[in-house]
């Protein structure tokens, strides 16, 4: 037990203590439940969708979420997308359709491969179609691959259960849907996901099954990224998810650029992982005229593969809302006996309300098919055909019945052969080439004169998406009080809806009882031993100057976190992939920014001066990006930090604006680029991409900011 020098209470000291306690305890009326820390969220949590009240509110939310998706994919700024130069070679002809083999570079040296299905081009049909352009449908296939093929026993079971109808087309259902769409008059392109089919430059293990950390992935963030999942790659928002999203965009570019395609009638449909890609495409591209993301629109499990997850993607949102970003464009889906089973009561009604808000309620559909497991089977495909027939104006006779056909041979399905070998590099060499090209082109875009305002600042506001809470949304509970060495000392707990933090309030004994002194918010690791003047000279200098110090303890300023990734089974079974933590949860440094802002509001409340601009409520916070608050009155609150909290304190200064009279941040020569571990307490994905600590300093703008021990830069 530490020794305290107790000074006998006088009437002045007691009166001062009463005044201060009245200000502090005024904040303690919230229920105890508010004080409980919120555990980390996982992909198997609940992801509800709260529909905004107005169309304009939704449009603001939509802009913010589309930006979030682009940032998560590493496509903010967008990578170069020159005209596609594809190789197209005939592969097969069947009754009603033709098949071509296709490959093209989505980026230099990286190839997208797939099959292009077209309606048959007999002389009669060519004459009938002359001068007309056809609708087109992009078909991301999902896990199992474009070449997924059921064995005889499985196929017999599927036919018996009603999942499939025919032996030939039912054996390869992903090919079957493209064949039927071509028979309906559509041009359909099914392309390989990374690691599947003929996309062999990167392994399936890397893209979909990786559960271990390669030693070479743990290097300083400032180094040029060489490997996916490495610290430099995550620090630049480079991921398999992003590569796959870019490939899908380039596949859409290819399809839209075909001379026979009507670019105003392009649909997208995929199942499972292909459903995720369909959702992402709807968020990134406005050219889609009809979307059918099957098997992944759900408030439950959000996508169990690294290729479906990325840092920041689903913070305060989920697949239902992300799918809704395409509204009011027509969108259809089904619910099955999987994680989509509750859609008819949890998810789909919200989508209906959103579409109704936008004047297009009939444009969203969800058919319950709970008698089937996770699927894109014959019945589901039939639902999709009717949907596309209506919204792409195909003029096919309804009901549309999928027809069987002679199966395509392995030779007809395969792109790379002995006579047509796969071009380009493979393995870790190819990883390095992709990531280096990605890095160089993004850096080039960030060199434009307006890049800070148009690219970096929106990214920072998305990454540090916290705002000062309202005063009635915090709870400052005093637990102990004493007088130590001439200082009024109160030990307290600062509670928000997200977390609880230990706080100490140190005030000078003063005869001026008319108002409280100015307050310095002090950010430190621990609030213990603050009465030691030798260890904390700045604290005692503030008190000697007549100011109150509100000290908040945020925990270790350096080192690695204990619970990243969380211990949820679905996450731990996927090794150290950080996307299962930061895809659903804010980095610790961002949570600490929220804590600094909560301490600011607590200090304002102690001064009995409410914030000059009302902040949003917790529910409203999840519906918008943060804004920088500008105060009109002179603040009486200053910020001072110990070493190690620049990654959290500088964004708090930027967001708070003039609500801090001045701020002193000890940078301790910190740079995000020096970090090696993704579970470092200060690691924030993307911050090396968006300018490191220098961008945070610039974000603070004209705030009265004093920096201690600033890194000279590289």
Strand order of the largest sheet: 10-11-12-14-13-15-16-17
The tally of strands reads 17
Mean pLDDT: 88
Structural class: alpha/beta
Largest sheet: 8 strands, mixed
Give the % helix: 25-40%
Backbone CA Rg: 29 Å
User: What is the number of helical segments per DSSP (H or I, 4+ residues)?
Assistant: 23
Which strand-content bin applies to the residues? 15-25%
| Low-pLDDT runs | 1-37, 567-574, 609-633
First-residue to last-residue Cα separation: 46 Å
Overall outline: elongated
What does this structure look like?
α22 runs parallel beside α23. It is built from 23 helices and 17 strands. Strands 10-11-12-14-13-15-16-17 form an eight-stranded mixed sheet, with helices on both faces. Strands 1-2-3-5-4-6-7 form a seven-stranded mixed sheet, with helices on both faces. Strands 8-9 form a two-stranded parallel ribbon. Helix content is 32%, strand content 17%. The N terminus is likely disordered. With 714 residues, it is α/β, with parallel strands linked by helices.
Question: Secondary-structure blueprint of this entry?
Answer:
Elements: H1 11-25, H2 55-72, E1 87-94, E2 97-107, E3 110-119, H3 123-129, E4 134-140, H4 152-161, H5 167-171, H6 173-183, E5 187-191, H7 204-209, H8 231-234, H9 240-256, E6 261-271, H10 273-284, E7 288-294, H11 319-323, E8 331-335, H12 348-357, E9 364-368, H13 378-391, H14 410-413, H15 427-445, H16 451-463, E10 475-484, E11 487-495, E12 500-508, E13 519-524, H17 537-544, E14 548-553, H18 569-572, H19 579-582, H20 588-606, H21 618-621, E15 637-641, H22 646-656, E16 662-666, H23 692-699, E17 705-708
Parallel strand pairs: 4-5, 4-6, 6-7, 8-9, 13-14, 13-15, 15-16, 16-17
Antiparallel strand pairs: 1-2, 2-3, 3-5, 10-11, 11-12, 12-14
Helix pairs in contact: 2-16, 9-10, 20-22, 22-23
